[in-house]
Write a structure and sequence with these properties.
The chain has about 110 residues and is mainly beta. Helices cover about 0% and strands about 55% of the residues. It is built from no helices and eleven strands. The strands form two sheets. Strands 2, 4, 5, 6, 9, 10 and 11 form a seven-stranded mixed sheet that branches. It has a four-stranded antiparallel sheet with strand order 1-3-8-7, with no helix packed on it. A hairpin with a 4-residue loop joins strand 7 and strand 8.
Length: about 110
């Protein structure tokens, strides 16, 4: 079992920044993929970004150049730095581990 604890969501104005963190505990393997999905209000869950233990990254097109995913393997933690936030980034953000384990979600609201 792997447990994921997210933090960092909140309310921010358009153009602002937030950083999400997700710490993994339990049976965390050395080789894994962690990342973030999000679910906007009334919409399906969608991949935001993922990062492998080796550092390879994938982003959805709409966040490229604005979001940066990174990880600290020693701390078993993945981060999502979100800059130039837009109202359409409003969603519940879910951390995942190998797309098998999921965090409870953290709400990001972008509004003036």
């Amino acid at each position: 079992q792997v447990q994921l604890e997210e933090s960092g969501g909140g309310l921010v104005q358009p153009g602002g920044s937030l950083r999400l963190s997700c710490a993994a505990s339990g049976r965390v393997l050395s080789f894994n993929v962690m990342g973030w999905y999000r679910q906007p209000p009334g919409k399906e869950r969608e991949l935001v970004a993922r990062i492998s233990s080796g550092g390879s990254t994938t982003y959805r097109d709409s966040v490229k150049g604005r979001f940066t995913i990174s990880r600290d393997n020693a701390k078993k933690t993945v981060y999502l730095q979100m800059n130039n936030l837009k109202p359409e980034d409003t969603a519940v953000y879910y951390c995942f581990y190998n797309e098998l384990y999921w965090g409870k979600g953290t709400l990001v609201t972008v509004s003036s």
